[in-house]
Each structure stands twice: as C-alpha cells, then as structure tokens.
Design goal:
The protein is of the alpha/beta class and 252 residues long. It is built from 8 helices and 9 strands. Helices cover 37% and strands 27% of the residues. Helix 1 packs across helix 8 and helix 3 packs across helix 4.
Length: 252
Amino acid sequence: MFKKQIHQTTRSEGPWKGGRRILVEFRTTGDPVPAILLLPRERTPAPAALLLHGYTSRKEHMSEGVGAALLERGIASLSIDLPLHGTRSDPVQAQAYRNPLALVKLWRQAVSESALALRYLAARPEVDAECLAVAGYSLGSFLAVLVAAQEPSVRALVLAAGGDLPAGTPLAAVARTVADPLRAIRKLDGRPLLMVHGRGDRTIRPEQAERLFAAAAEPKELRWWNAGHILPQEAIGYAAEWLSERMGAEVG
C-alpha cells in the first residue's frame, strides 16, 4: 500500500535527563501534529513507545511521567497532542464538536493521527522500527487499543485506567459502532498486554477494565492499585519496567 510522505518540523532540541528532548511537528496532508520525542543518549536504534494522553490532558503529562520513566530504561518515546488538546486547544471548535457527527469525525482524526505518529516514530533513524509499543491513559487507552489492533508493528500494549465502553447505555451502543475496544483487543494475536487500574476508579470503572481484560488473549496482566482514576507514580514505574522487559531494553 502506498503511504504518503511524512513532513516534519523541529521546533527545539536539547539534552534531557539522560537523553535528548526534541519538540517536533509532523504531518502528511492534514493538520500538523505537535509532539515531544525523548531519545536515550547511549542506545541507537532504541525500542520506542507511542504515548497517548487522556481527556483534557496534553503531551507533556505523558512525556514527563511515563516518558521519563521509559527513558531511564533506554526506551525512546513520542508523546502527541491529540486534536483539541494541549497546543491544539480551541474552545470555539470544541463547541462545534458537541454535534455527534462532528464527534465521530474528530475521533477518526485522532485514530488516524495516532497511527501516523507510530509511522513517524518508526521512521526515525534513532528508533528500532521492529521494537515498538503503545501506551495510553484513559481516553488515550481507547485510542491505543485501536491503533495496536490495526498496526502489526506494535509489539506490546499498555492501557492505564482503560477498559471497555460502559455497558447498558444507548450512547455506548452507538459508540461501539465507531470504536469497539472488545473487538479491537481480540486482534492483538498474542502480543503482550498490561492493564493498570485503580480499584476506586469512578471514571472508567473496574468492571469495564475487567471486561476488556477478559476479552484479550494471553499473555496479559491486569495490575490493581488502591487509587481512583489518577494512578500513583508506582503504577507508572511498574508499567515502564514491564515494557522494558518485553522490549529487551537495557536498564541504565
């Protein structure tokens, strides 16, 4: 299949806690996607992970959290601003997307840009294109499982505070026609899955996490934390170490 050329613009670059931090924008024909690329100092090409943030969040939260933890373990990462988030925030446009059809269009844009981000990451010479992962938090976890399902290059998947759609509501039935996490996770074909979740999560409830986990094939792990929707630093460290082991990264 023919793939469009990816164009990039480097905004800044400098040293960053054991590696390099590069602010970039990339695109094909659509809007430029702002991103933070973290690269380990010593290892090239390095395993790498695409990091997808939650609703109302931004790329910095993922980069400074799990991205930094991965960098300590020799893993590169790319954190992007999803549409209408971070530097792409637009209150006027956000109002327009209250329309259900516009919301579907926005969701499809987010899925397309996440897949493009994975292609961009794989094309970087500092990155091992055969050793890629995706990690998503909350809203980003829904995107992460869809992208992993359609991109065989993804070797491992981490879902933080993620799960299936809420059951028993008309909205969920409609949403499932556009994005079905259960159908997507069944397409992992034995690629490793880690889910980390708070027992007290009231945004994406424990039963939603359990339902998604049950639909996945082995190897898989569901790790619980005594937390709500915001997971503790220990969960970030655990996920980073899990990815390091699955991707053959060198600690230190």
